[in-house]
Amino acid sequence: MSELKNDVFLRALMRQPVPRTPVxxxxxxxxxxxxxxxxxxxxxxxxxxxRNPELACEVTMQPLRRYKLDAAILFSxxxxxxxxxxxxxxxxxxxxxxxxxxxQSVDAxxxxxxxxxxxxxxxxxxxxxxxxxxxxxxxxxxxxAGSPFTVGTYMVEGGSSREFPTIKALAKESxxxxxxxxxxxxxxTTEYLNAQIEAGAQAVQIFDTWGAALEGDDFxxxxxxxxxxxxxxxxxEKDGQKIPVIVFTKGAGPLLTDLAETGCDALGxxxxxxxxxxxxxxxxxxxxQGNLDPATLRESPEVIRQGVADTLASYGKGPGHVFxxxxxxxxxxxxxxxxxxxxxxxxxxxxxxxx
Length: 355
Ligand code: CP3
Description:
CATH topology: TIM Barrel
Bound molecules: coproporphyrinogen III
């Protein structure tokens, strides 16, 4: 394994001193880049792109060629896990993800089993190995998975949802059935992330996009507890290097205080909580990642630069900040605008660090 040439991202996650604030962007490989759309066209569709390690590697590298980013993220999706359980993931243009076999009865949930992760998701681990080879130690590679609750919403609703009627009814009427679903997905996800780490992922992020749609007690019982189980089962050190774990619960707000106790190294923060407040919630327990509103990228480079300045100032001085958006970059963004953001982080962040 080659020596890592740029480890500011990993050091910031462990709250160690760094000379500047590292930056990466959720969904940095994606449709806002014309070169991504080109390769996706070549692959045929999104899942064929995910299943082709060479092309998945190519789109992972694309944003790194354009911008001075401090981490790469595996190109894949959180819904590969239920696909491996036999639900039949496919994407319908304009409608997002769908399952051929959603789990819409108590029996269907009770019959779910942990799949053969090594075999069914081998294409993901092959992509991780291919990307590590291609990166050649330039920056670390982030592996990822969805939280059991977030993945569970797609499994029981059958696709994207705004209100989550089915899974919320389960939480109230059959909590033991929802516990079972959370346990099966958590167990599968633990194996999945450990296999990504084994294949070469140097940090992992759990995307809990929808957990905060639950009320506090249900959030803790279903979403947070199942993420806790995953964290407890993860490989935390490999080849003498610590493997940091980031939890991103969108809209967590004051729940960040609870999440800081899960044993993760860092918490993602969306733009509805400012970083100064988030820092008060978590104290010195964990690093923070975020949190510029992705909508800011539609504004002029000057406005973007000011947004970066405000975000850095909100976190303030000292280690433990990883710059990111508060959620993924959207397909309508001008690629030049992301360049303005990344350059501004490089120029404006050194004043917040002593190292
Ligand atoms: O960040 C990255 O660059 C890594 C790749 C990544 C993708 N999806 C690629 C993708 C990651 C980390 C994800 C996570 C993901 N997937 C989440 C959680 C994070 C979040 O953004 O909240 C969720 C909820 C999903 C499920 C999912 N996958 C949806 C709802 C969609 C459709 C979105 C849409 O706008 O059509 C996807 C498809 C998807 N995953 C795309 C990409 C680049 C777009 C597919 C395309 O090329 O058409």
